[in-house]
Amino acid sequence: MDALHEELKRWFGYDEFRPGQEEIIRTLLSGQDVLGIMTTGAGKSLCYQLPALMLPGLTLVISPLIALMQDQVQNLERRGIHCATFLNSSLTKREIVERMEGIRNGRYKIVYIAPERIRSREFMTLLSRTQVSLLVVDEAHCISEWGHDFRTDYLLIGSLRERIGQVPIMALTATATKEVQEDITVQLGIEDGARIIMGYDRPNLAFIFRRETTVENKYKEAVAFLRGQRGCGIIYTSSRGECEEFARLLRQQLGEEIAFYHAGMQAEERRQIQDAFIRGKFRIVVATNAFGMGIDKPDIRFVLHLHVPSSVEAYYQEAGRAGRDGKPSICMTIFTQRDRGIHHFFLKKEFPSEAEVDRLAQRLIDLHTEGEAVRIRWREFAGIQGFTEEKVSLLLHIWEQQGVLLIEEMDSQDAVVRFEKNAFAKKRNEVLMTISRLKLRRYGKLHSMVELLAAEGCRRQAILRYFGQEGFARPHPCCDRCDPGLLTGCYTPGPVDRYPWRDVLREILPADPPVVMPRLAKTEGEEAYAIGEARDEAGLPRLYELLKSPSVNTRRMAVSAIGKIRRAESVPYLLTLLKDVNPQVRQYTLKALRKIGDRQAKSYVEEMLKREDKEYNIREAQAILKEWSG
Ligand code: ADP
Fold it and tell me: Where do the Helicase ATP-binding domain residues begin and end (predicted)?
């Protein structure tokens, strides 16, 4: 047995690594940054936990899943590993102080934090005096605006790395399209690191999509399906009301205890239900998408969606909770046209309207005293009609991104911000545009999900293709298209009706704002990506053409690809993009120029620096000029 296997046995009691784990760990231990993509349940945690225990200093794990941190720490403790802890807003001030003290004394090897911790000056000071050996970014897709679960706080991670120095980074996720991968590596500055992609296929899952014409039929089909299921399962509904109602219906129809779970319930109650489900106290839970993050229950035999999920990523993550033990499991989706409107409702609730942006700005201005910071108490602000905490937080981040204000502190109670009164009016348009852009992306994601449900041919192939995977070995059973008799014996579906996707699309997508179908942009972006990955010089003329695309994404991907090919002849083509209206494109351009390293661009970068208003671009430009000054 070699040393790494010995460590595996010693700490975790396993004899073998799961596919991908060893490669990721060895790559990291050799000093390289790694982006690792592994499906749910494949064993991502071990990829950083084992090196963390072997390396000398501290491993910092950034995760957005606050509820999960405690589970992770407890799981380690159950294995007799007592050197892990977490810092997040669920703790009291005193607990935080104690744990920080523990970090200072070297008591911990692994510390889980939520990204907003990076705003805490105390924590950053502590880190600067601590030996950090590894920085782990879990759920790394959250750093990308193009991901399904973009978290503005994740953008802080870039600045963290700058401050703690050149520490190896391991970024992990289960779902990232090529564009999202590109964003992760650029934002984290690990473009030269390794990408270890284990593929997205889950061969033991069989996929069934069914469209019903009426809601009654949807429920009838669902009950018929459930009558044939003997194992444990999760049923996802779109709303809290539907979740409770359907649980009631099932109790009556199946004559057994059925739990429900949604974000409107008390935290304690939710916790109890989750625990009882994991321990097998009941078989079936009906839930909204609030359920399942971090559910490590191996024997879930089915996941039933009774609605259209908001993105393919969200769908696959939820469906993927089935069959973690590798045994055959079913992912069934039954939906109707009526499932369309719900997303409008959520999008409306999630993103602030124009009037709301103005109202909140006015409110802040009213609280402002010249030269002083303003303290915002979440509860008070969320009390303003129509505002949720999430909405206020999103808006604060967007304002910060646009340079309107500075968030000095932020925790679960309040936020402290500093600004100048007239900045709101000056940047009003940019802020509104950012909101529409984010909203449009979400519609794009929804559109892809609708397309997936409508796609011809094999379901698995359509899912994998969305994530950019072409090849796979078709398992048996595969999906309702490949194996129409898939469920004979326990559930016999009626004839699968053809899905009039054009009609449904028209109804699901909003008339206003007009939606640019992301299809074309996506393929062009991917085309650029492929040329870059192949380092294909012959593809350069095509890339120069793509630089003129109206799509931000295409321009961004083309610039990035040009950077990878590293030819000085490309520099003149890139220079105009230093003036691109989109700050991300400018960011990618700077990075590409830096890679190519041709100093003829120097005066252009200097000139750009005079105009640039984005902090991250200013930093990058300054770094380049410094590099080129010697
Ligand atoms: P995810 O990739 O979803 O984060 P986890 O890290 O939670 O997956 O791991 C899923 C399960 O697999 C856990 O119960 C973990 O203990 C188990 N596991 C991880 N690595 C191995 C291994 N090498 N051998 C056996 N079981 C493993």
Answer: 25-194
Q: How far is the CA of 83 from the centre of ligand 1 (A)?
A: 19
Instruction: Establish if 519 belongs to a structural domain.
Output: no
- Strands 84-87 and 110-113, by their bridges, are parallel
Last residue of a domain, one of 180, 197, 214: 197
* 38 CA distance to ligand 1 middle (Å): 11
Residues 12 and 106 in one domain: yes
Domain identity same for 332 and 236: yes
Q: Does the predicted model carry a pTM greater than 0.70?
A: yes
365-385 pLDDT, tens digit each: 988 888 888 888 877 777 666
Separation of alpha carbons 326 and 70, rounded Å: 26
In whole numbers, what is the pLDDT of the chain averaged over residues? 86
Q: Are residues 414 and 465 in the same domain?
A: no
- Regarding whether 230 and 184 lie in a shared domain, the answer is no
Residue 514 lies in a domain: no
Angle CA 304–310–314, to nearest 5? 65
Say yes or no to pLDDT of 411 above 60: yes
| Residue pLDDT, tens place only, 122-178 | 899 999 899 999 999 999 999 987 777 778 888 888 878 777 878 999 999 988 888
Mutate to test the pocket of ligand 1, among 296, 299, 317 (most ligand atoms within 8 A of CB): 296
Residue 528 near residue 592, CB atoms below 8 Å: no
Distance 221 CA to ligand 1 centre (A): 34
How confident is residue 96, by pLDDT bands cut at 50, 70 and 90?
A: very high
225: its two tokens: 């399906």
Domain count, the chain: 4
Q: Which range of residues forms the domain containing residue 19?
A: 3-197
- Domain boundary, last residue among 390, 414, 433: 433
The predicted structure's pLDDT at residue 589: 95
| Ligand 1, atom nearest to 44 Cα | 2
Ligand 1 binding pocket, CB closer than 6 Å? 14, 16-18, 21, 38, 40-46, 296
- Atom nearest to 75 CA in ligand 1: 16
Residues 80, 22, single domain; the answer is: yes
Residue 513, domain member (yes or no): no
Q: What is the per-residue pLDDT for 522?
A: 46
Residues 367, 479, single domain; the answer is no
Q: 9: pLDDT confidence band, cut at 50, 70 and 90?
A: very high
* Nearest CA-CA partner of 300 in 204, 175, 224, 199: 204
CA of 46 to the centre of ligand 1 (A): 7
Which residue type, as a one-letter code, is found at position 503? Answer: D
Tell me, what CATH number does 422's domain have?
A: 1.10.10.10
Ligand 1: which of 23, 26, 44, 46 to mutate, judged by most atoms within 8 Å of the beta carbon? 46
534 with 607, same domain: the answer is yes
Q: Which of 45, 175, 321 for mutating ligand 1's site (highest number of atoms within 8 Å of CB)? A: 45
Is residue 438 situated within a structural domain?
A: no
Strand 110-113: give its sheet, edge to edge.
84-87, 110-113, 58-62, 132-137, 169-173, 34-37, 194-197
Query: What are the tens digits of pLDDT across the range 506-536?
Result: 444 343 333 333 333 346 888 888 888 888 8
39 and 23 within one domain: yes
For the ranges 47-61, 451-465, 494-508, 548-562, which has the lowest average pLDDT?
Answer: 494-508
